[in-house]
Write a structure and sequence with these properties.
By secondary structure, this protein is an alpha/beta fold. It is built from 9 helices and 11 strands. The strands form 3 sheets. A 7-stranded parallel sheet has the order 3-4-5-8-9-10-11, covered by helices on one side. Strands 1-2 form a two-stranded antiparallel sheet.
Length: 284
């Protein structure tokens, strides 16, 4: 196979996926967690650079941007609005609620319905939206019944504040319980070439047409050199003239037609490298 590095970078080369029957986006998005300060805390060191990443992503065909109110906290959503509002008509911004950050090292779950309602309304204000296209429960709160938390998101959907509901960090049983309450159009779990612990969840998503958003999709690209999957990625990258992160994304995109990777970066050059992988293909 010849090198694919001459393909013009555009997210649409990954093909498309439809969320909830009405939101069609390229199968390569952008995670906005890193468009904040160190430790995902406070404003970005270079706000202009963060804006350039977002604007360049849209120019490269990215039409799905994932964030959360806990990134900053509240910073990532504000940076997105500052850089991109008024938004392109076909841009989908997904955000999450259910984690609070009282201080930099703390990521604490809060799935109380009253918190999720207030969090969604605050996200609407920061993002300058009348309705959030995809609102996700960031994690399950062990002190709150899953049904209560998902019920709150279902009510937000009924009120028109949310178009579609997604979940994050769910296993197969938890996903099934959530789907009894509201249609779930996406699952966001940790997944990469080395960590395939959500294979069973991904299989359900592939079977039922639910988007699967892998977080930490590039973990192995800069991770443990001794892991066997690292060697396979390096081999594929060398064979095709790619970088290891590009090989990692190519592997994910081939793993399932419902895969929607959301790699994050705070650097335009790195962004362009990642988006170029939308056009890369691995053999079996």
């Amino acid at each position: 196979m010849s090198s694919d590095t001459d393909i013009t970078a555009n997210a649409s080369l990954a093909g498309h996926i439809t969320l909830g029957g009405d939101l069609r986006v390229p199968r390569l998005g952008l995670g906005a967690m890193h468009l904040t300060g160190n430790g995902v805390w406070g404003p970005p060191r270079d706000p202009a650079a963060a804006r350039r990443v977002l604007q360049r992503a849209v120019a490269l065909g990215v039409r799905f941007i994932d964030t959360a109110d806990s990134y900053g906290p509240a910073v990532s959503e504000a940076v997105i609005a500052d850089a991109l509002h008024p938004y392109p008509a076909d841009l989908v911004i997904a955000t999450k609620g259910g984690i609070v950050r009282p201080d930099q090292p703390t990521w604490a779950s809060d799935g109380r319905p009253e918190h999720l309602t207030a969090a969604c309304e605050a996200s609407l204000r920061r993002l300058k939206l009348d309705r959030i296209d995809l609102y996700q429960l960031h994690t399950i709160d062990p002190d709150v019944p899953l049904e209560d938390s998902i019920g709150a998101l279902a009510r937000l959907r009924e009120q028109g504040k949310v178009r579609h509901v997604g979940v994050s960090n769910f296993d197969v049983d938890e996903l099934e319980r959530a789907r009894r309450i509201v249609p779930v159009v996406s699952v966001q779990n940790r997944y990469n070439a080395a960590d395939r612990s959500s294979d069973d969840v991904l299989d359900v998503c592939t079977r039922d047409g639910i988007a699967f958003l892998p977080w930490r999709p590039l973990a192995l690209a800069a991770g443990d050199a001794r892991h066997p999957a690292r060697g396979r990625l390096e081999q594929a990258a060398k064979q095709h003239g790619w970088s290891v992160p590009q090989a990692a994304l190519a592997w994910l995109l081939q793993r399932s037609p419902m895969m929607l990777p959301i790699p994050g970066t705070s650097n335009v050059t790195h962004l362009e490298e990642l988006v170029a992988a939308a056009g890369f293909r691995l053999d079996d």
